[in-house]
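Q: What changes when zinc ion is included in the input?
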Amino acid sequence: MPVSSRAPGSVYEMHRQRWLHDRAAAQTLRSAFPGVERIRVDLTFRDTTALSPGAQSHAVYPAARAFFEFLCPHADCNGTFDLTDAVYSVMRDASAHADGTLECKGTRPRPGMTTGPCEVSVRYTIATKYRAQVS
Ligand SMILES: [Zn+2]
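A: The predicted holo structure follows.
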């Protein structure tokens, strides 16, 4: 096994490449959920051991990829927050709103250790705007 895991081509870079690949392979929102005009995802991070990373807001429109796995805001973490199930359950229930909390399951270099659990959690809000029904 390679000793250095932080060098370019490291597990973190491979993790990011895999994520980019998965995102590029996702179908568009239009084909996944034709009745949806916009999905807005707000993420508020909480880091128990350091300054919390900045909040993020993502708006997904019909031409965009219906991809709801978000990279952990720590660049050297190999974790993601996968909101796919949460978004799909909003769609299944034809509801407009969902929220919840997820923990990062990744690991990253920590002071005094080689690597440790990331321990960042995210509070998410999903807001869906449906197209006006023509009937
Ligand atoms: Zn993380």
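Observations recorded in class: The longest helix spans residues 11-25.
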